Amino acid sequence: MLESCLPRPEILSGYTSLLDGAIINSVVLQIDPEPQHHLVKLIGLDGVLLANARARNFDAIVRNLRNLYEEELCQRVLILPDCSVLGHSPETPQGLEQMKLLLILLLGAAVQCPNKELFIGRIKELDLETQHAIVELIKQVTDNQSLVLTNESMEQLTPDMMYNHLLRVTKERDQYHSNWITSFTIETEVAHNNGPQRINSMSPSSAATTNGPDSNHMVVELADLKSKLRKLRQELEEKSEAFMEVKEELEHKTSQYEKLRTESQEWYTEARRSSAYRDEVDVLRERAERADRLEVEVQKLREKLSDAEFYKTRVEELREDNRTLLETK
């Protein structure tokens, strides 16, 4: 993934080549040639001092990326890599996870910065499978509101998502506080071994003063999130009440529906019965009409029969007259 952002991919010799932050910072410089925070040199350092220096380097990289997202891209990064883990235990599963998060944010910034055509062109030179994998990683930044929040995606945030973000912020606050205490304790022990002057220079008040702006920023952000959470809870209560009203109305409508369905079933039965009666009426009506026609025909036949009797009688009379005439002759 990182090879697509490097002008000379051969300098990336493995995961360990990323641990000092120099290669990642070279990509950041391509995105923003004038960053606000700069890396420190690690030459001659070892042990805890080396780990602390690497953590400061990653902190500078993360700060520069955050500034780039906020000032250049007008986006808010919701999850930042834990620089303490990257500095002290980068090869642990937690360290690998934090490094992956850092590289995803770096890639998301690269394809959205003013020099994005350069990075997109390098990505297109890779094989299709790698391109598809990189696109999926980019979508985690551009399409998923869990890593980076844009102004357009604010309207898509649900109460559940806001609540999960708030829980994550509080957990990160507790984790950062624990890491700060651990780091301060270690540095105090190192300073104690090197002399009392080091202890005085690393007093809690000075450390707190150093981290004051970030702490104040986190407090303000946390207060803002708590305010939003209260509003969301109030909205949730209102929607719950509306839901109960709708539920009661639905139950009432369901009861009416069952009643109407029963009546409809009865009407359907009556309709079928009426249909059967109607069929019988049609048969009887047809028979009645047929009987009327037959009666008319019978009447006509009776009239014809009466005429036939008349003609028969007349024929008999004529025969009798003929016989009488013949006898007279």
Automatic annotation (TrEMBL):
Primary location group: cytoplasm
Positions of the UniProt region annotated as Disordered: 195-215
Biased composition (Polar residues): 195-214
Swiss-Prot/TrEMBL keywords: Coiled coil, Cytoplasm
Record's signal peptide: none
Domain HOOK N-terminal: 16-138
One record GO biological process: cytoplasmic microtubule organization
A molecular function GO annotation: microtubule binding
InterPro entries: CH_dom_sf, HOOK_N
A cellular-component GO term for this protein: cytoplasm
Record carries keyword NADP: no
Coiled-coil stretches: 215-328
Record's subcellular location: Cytoplasm
A Pfam entry, by short name: HOOK_N
UniProt xrefs under PANTHER family: GIRDIN, ISOFORM A (PTHR18947:SF28), HOOK PROTEINS (PTHR18947)
Protein name: HOOK N-terminal domain-containing protein
Taxonomic lineage of the native organism: Eukaryota, Metazoa, Ecdysozoa, Arthropoda, Hexapoda
